TrEMBL record:
Protein name as it appears in the record: Small ribosomal subunit biogenesis GTPase RsgA
Cofactor comment: Binds 1 zinc ion per subunit.
Native source organism of the sequence: Alkalihalobacillus trypoxylicola
GO biological process: ribosomal small subunit biogenesis
Cofactor entry: Zn(2+)
PANTHER family reported in the protein's UniProt record: SMALL RIBOSOMAL SUBUNIT BIOGENESIS GTPASE RSGA, SMALL RIBOSOMAL SUBUNIT BIOGENESIS GTPASE RSGA 1, MITOCHONDRIAL-RELATED
Family, per entry: Belongs to the TRAFAC class YlqF/YawG GTPase family. RsgA subfamily.
Gene Ontology MF, one: metal ion binding
Amino acid sequence: MAKGKIMKALSGFYYVQDSNDHEVYQCRGRGNFRKRGIKPLVGDTVLFEAENKTDGYVLEVDERKNELVRPPIANVDQALLVFSALEPDFSSNLLNRFLVQIEWNQIETIIIISKVDLLTNEQLTEMEKYQKLYEDIGYKVILTTTNEAQSVEKMVPFIRDRISVVAGQSGVGKSSLLNVLQPSLKIETNEISNHLGRGKHTTRHVELISIEKGLIADTPGFSSLDFTGMLPEQLSECFPEMHALSNECKFRGCSHTSEPQCAVKDGLQTGKVHQERYEHYLQFLEEINNQKRRYDR
């Protein structure tokens, strides 16, 4: 038996990298995993045994420090959220949806906004306002251009010695960036669909790739995210600027909607909470409440 990490999951097989010899072994899950409710994920540290490179079994899965449902991956150190300034257009609503999911899983986030060299001066000024907004909240924000080599140079210091998940809008250049970081990958990329205004989903599975002394997961693109499993009172915890103010609210469990003496609503007046972020919070809260009402029937 040996310790290893699941680097890829595909068609019922788990590709486990041995912690000692760094060789990769094709494994199946133990027969009783399904009965025990265990589903191994990419990123899991596991105990496995293998007679050869193609005939092994995952025997045990270590406790996870975190896990994501979409993409299905465990033990992530940070999320690289890649959004484009144009083609497809930057969506702060979608970015905030991703940030809620990442905060919910207590994963550090780096926001990468690509293709900023395609913006007009007026558009660039607007994008720099977003950069300042998210940096003031506490996120790292990297603006990159269509010059992929320069973009990668900015990213490398954040990759080393970490397990990163790459996610964001479809068609923003996630796969292209990984190809520049590791040219031997030759990950399939597609042009933006002019009709739909978004990229085709070229990535079919989650796989950890060794890049710049770190591990990066290339993941399928998403067009939407829901809040399954999140309670209404937990949402504001995923907005760091609101969570920081919530202890000052008059009422415990304040929803920051209609209650008097709400520090978050006061923060709207003082600039500590951005109006658009607050509007997205209200939208997400309504979605969570609607989900809860459906489940309660």
